[in-house]
Structure formats: structure tokens, C-alpha cells
Amino acid sequence: MNINEVIRKRRSVFPAQYNGKPIAKEFIKVLLENANYAPTHKLTEPWRFKVIQGEAKDKLGKFLSDTYTDITSDEKFSPFKYKKIIDNCKSASAIIAICMQRDLKERIPEWEEIASTAMAVQNMWLTCTANQIGCYWSSPNLINYMDDFFEFDEGERCLGFFYLGTYTLDEEIPDSKRSSIDEKVAWMQ
Fold first, then answer.
1. What are phi and psi of 59, to 5 degrees?
2. Whole-prediction pTM value?
3. How many domains does the chain have?
């Protein structure tokens, strides 16, 4: 695929669609290396990643589901959501915690470091698309509790989880729905 095709074919492929085949560690390394080439103002390189595989996925699923139970009132608790949290962790070949390390000198606005981290994730997403690997960025409220699971450096926090998995290529992945770019652009001359 050329770059235009890769960008336009990028989709969320959810853990429920994964077929359980493992993803090679070598691919994950390439994925993270591509993430490392995202734009970064003042070279703060704020992106940080924690790769979760094997038994660590089960530990994450238990932590997230237990935390969901602890922070959710009885009337808002959803057994479906509880089960989905666990199933997502089990279904993924790997989960990458997307973290951001804030520049401790605060030389640039925080939003720029969040944007840089998001661009790193976009590089990961495009790499997955080009290699027919399913992926999905989830940023549930539970990310606010991840300092009880991970050891973060000062100024570091979790922005979400990037689930990875292989999927059956003949499975229908819906086309993206986008309104015309003409509705979003003002040309000024």
C-alpha cells in the first residue's frame, strides 16, 4: 500500500475481532521504533510505552476489572463492561500502555507533549495497518488509576491502552465514515 492507502485504511480493530495468533516481538519492536519518530517540540520525546504480554495481561485485566468494581456504584455497575475489560486483555496478543512523560522543566505547553504522544500512536497505528495487524486505542476512565499498577517516573502518566491482535483478513472491516474535507477547510488567498 502507498501512504495514502495506509492512512485511509486505518481502522480500529477491536479485541473481540482478534483471532488469538501471537504477534512477534520483532514486530512490536519495529512498531515502537516507528513511534519514536513522531514530531516532538524541543525534542522532549514525551512518549513512553509499557508492553504487556503473557501473564501480565491477566494481571492488568484483574487490576482493571477490580478497579472498575471499586469505583463504580452498584446502580451503574455493568456485568457486561466488567467482563469486556477482562476479555479485552485476554484477546489481545499484546497491550501497550501509552504513557506521556511531562517535561519537568515545562519548556513547552502540556498539550504539545500530549499531541506528540498521539502522533507516536498514529505512527504505530499506521504501521499496524500496513502490516494487517489489528489495533485499538482505548482511554477509559480507569487510566486515572494506573499509578497503582505501574511505577511511573515523576511527571509520567497513562493516556490509554493500545491493544494489538491479529485478525482474519477476510473479515469485513467497515469503511471509515468521514464527511467531506471541504466542510472543514477555509481557503484564504
1. -65, -40
2. 0.93
3. 1
